[in-house]
Structures are given as C-alpha cells and as structure tokens.
Known about the structure:
Elements: H1 22-28, H2 33-36, H3 42-56, E1 63-67, H4 73-80, E2 84-89, H5 92-98, E3 104-108, E4 121-126, H6 136-149, E5 150-162, H7 165-173, H8 182-191, E6 193-194, E7 207-210, H9 212-221, E8 224-231, H10 242-247, H11 249-261, E9 274-281
Parallel strand pairs: 1-2, 1-4, 2-3, 4-5, 5-7
Antiparallel strand pairs: 5-9, 6-7, 8-9
Amino acid sequence: MTADHDTPTTSTSAAGLPVLAEEITAYYERDNEDGRLRKGSGRLEFWRTQDVLRRLLPPAPAKVLDVGGGSGVHAQWLAADGYDVELLDPVPLHVERAARLPGVTAHVGDARALRLPDESADVVLLLGPLYHLPEREDRVRALGEARRVVRPGGVVVAATINRFAGLHDTLSTGLYFDPDRRPQIESAARDGRMRPTGGDKSLFTTAYFHQPADVLDEFAAAGLAPSGQYGVEGAAWLMGDVSAWLDDPGRRESVLRAVRQTESEPSLLGVSGHLLTAGGRR
C-alpha cells in the first residue's frame, strides 16, 4: 500500500464483509504486540487499561468476550481474576497463543460479525478492533454487534487511539523531524487515517485515530449509551522518564494515581495516547 491510498484493497469474507488488509495481518504476525505491553513505556497502557477495567467490570465470575483480544495480554489477567473469558481475533497466530492460556477459550473471528448468540456475554471488550476499521460504517457495525451480544445491564468497553497520538508521540521521540515520516504524521492528524508507506519509514499499519467526541457518536449510532470516557496514559506517556518510573514500584503507583486524577477530565482526554469508552444498551 502507498501513502496516497485512503483505504487498502480488500477481499470479501464469507459474511460479505471486507477482510483485514494484508499489511494489518502482516504487522501483527511479527508477534510484537504481546511484548510491547509487557515492557518499557508500553506497561503504562497495560496497567492503566487493567486499572480502569477492574473498576468498570461486574464481579467475577462473569462472561467476558474479548473481541480483537490479540494474543491474550488482557485475557490472561481477566481469567486469573476469575472471569469466564472467550477471546476472538482475526489473526490466527494470536488465537493460537491465546488458546494456550489457562481459563481462556479462543477462536478466529470478525468484530463485525460475531458468531455468538444474542445477550450471551456480561462484558464485551473491543480493545483493538475500532482503530483498525478505517470506515465509520464498519466501526458502528462492530459496536452494534457488541450491543447485540451483551446482556441487558452489561458493559461494553472500546479502546480507540486519539487523533493526535501520532503527532504527540513523534514529537516526544524526535521522529517528527524526519522529513520521510512527517507526511504520515500530519496526514493522520488531519483526517485520522494512518496510511502505511511500507519499509522502515512506515510508522504503523492501516489505522483510524478518533476524536473523543466521535467515539460517543459511534456508540450512539450503534444503540449504545455511553457511560464514561477514560484517558489511558494521560500526559504521562509523553514524559521521557516514564519507563524508568515504572521500574520502581513506589513511583509506578504514584504515576498511576496521578493519571487517574485526570482520566475523565474533558479538556485532557485527547492528550492520552489511547482512550477507553464504556457504555451499555440503551
């Protein structure tokens, strides 16, 4: 795929839906995602996601459907907490790894066409699918499927990448000043679409970066009533020493506590790299 394409060429699945773009599958088949959240500054995203979910989810045992759950980074601790966890993901390598985790069942699936009965889960997590669906219609379809399978009174939680995450991240690391990368960065900040260029200058795979208010609109379009939004990393992810702080248990707890203070402050939601939006059936 080249930088001037708005969306990748896709084929059609048995459900009549476009399948994942090849470069998305290739990106995740490198098998880097699991490790990314377990080391360095990626641990802030992991621990903060865990922190927010533990406050939002009903008590265990409850049925959790982890849609787009990757290799099971979050499914693992959810199962250890006593939840009945079913994971689905479009990448076979992820499903193979997740299926080895105690207490987790895993299978290949599409967030837009869940092969599950109506009202069959207490919790539906979409911690990855929405930012790999560039078209709003597909994102609303995925949220609509979450609404269909969640029980009345259940919880749907979706993760999105904030619109200016790429801009903030590359300014922090200095990559913004690379003239070969800057067009990707500024394009994503302009319209939300991350367009991979291929090669070692490509910053990410095909993705869509949301404005926080747009997530609320997509929830509403899918028949979900939003109940809260939570900045995952806050501003802490942009601070150069954050990885070292996370190495120290005392400082780590201080960082998590500090980010929690501003997690739902409207003026700061877009500063975070990732956003969690929670809701349920109307």
